Amino acid sequence: MRSSMIFVGTLFVAVCAGSPPARADAEASGLTTPTGARDIDLARLVRAADLALQGGRFVEARALLETLDEQGAAKDSRVELLRAELLVASGYPAEARRLLATLGNPEFASCRIGAAIALADIQTGELDEAQTQLGSYGTKCAGDPVYWRALGRVALGLGRPSRAAEAYRRALALQPGNDVVRNDLAVTLIADGKPEEAADLLSRLAGEQPGREDIALNLDFANAMIGRNPVRRTGESDGFWSRRLEAAAEGARNAGRPGFAEALLAQALIERPRHDQRLWDQYAKVSDRP
Questions:
Q1: Which entry of 102, 130, 191, 285 is 20 to 30 Å from 39 by CA?
Q2: What is the distance between the alpha carbons of residues 139 and 176, in angstroms, rounded to a whole number?
């Protein structure tokens, strides 16, 4: 297994919120509604769950899947696929693989199933297997944003950020309003040594989604890489401000700016509401530099 210098998806926190993708309707995502679906309301629920899942709104997706179960759609292949994707997104790859194995490979969602299997393989450290899985689909899935997102995660995990960025750009071209993909692209640009471009993208995202903590932390990381100090926002809690300073310190350290990282960590310690030994250990390590 190869490792990258950053976590896949975001640098510091899991993505659990986001706006719906502008084009992530059932057809654009590859999850089409079979002809003769028994109830139009169920089809709408499936589409809503799909949108929530692709937008990173996992709590909403889980609630919609529970509603579908109550409506008697638990064994619908579309619903089972969404449940498997949610298991992958929640960090349960083994359970997801078992569920995916029961689906076969229905033509209406073969790209989605292949992507879900690859993402499960990533979580169990089987990056080469994930790459092979996605490669077997060739050009068949070129119009599926979920496929490109999975390909981006595999490439980043294999330490190929330029290839990952290209895959995320392809996904973003298909889902231009998907904030999760935009954030993933920014993280990948950081890994690719392009913090200025990442900071520009994250700045736009932060302006559109001021409540997104993951975006704020990633922006601080990218800005510190190029020597920019974070600025505290009005009404921001001491705890989150301290976390932002810590994120910035990590970015500064990543960019080879140990003095800047030390100053940021010192301020983070002052702002932290309670004793944090982990943060003290980080400060001790960077302050004890040669």
A1: 102
A2: 21
Categorise residue 153: left if φ over 0, alpha if ψ from -120 to 50, beta otherwise.
alpha
pTM of the entire predicted model: 0.77
Instruction: Tell me which CATH code domain 194-290 carries.
Output: 1.25.40
Residues 1-177, CATH architecture: Alpha Horseshoe (1.25)
| C-alpha span between 236 and 8 (Å, rounded) | 27
Structure tokens at 154: 């595999």
Q: Using a pLDDT cut of 90, give the percent of the chain over it.
A: 57
* Residues 215/30, Cβ–Cβ less than 8 Å: no
Alpha-carbon distance of 244 to 230, in angstroms, equals: 8
Place of tokens 């706006």: 19
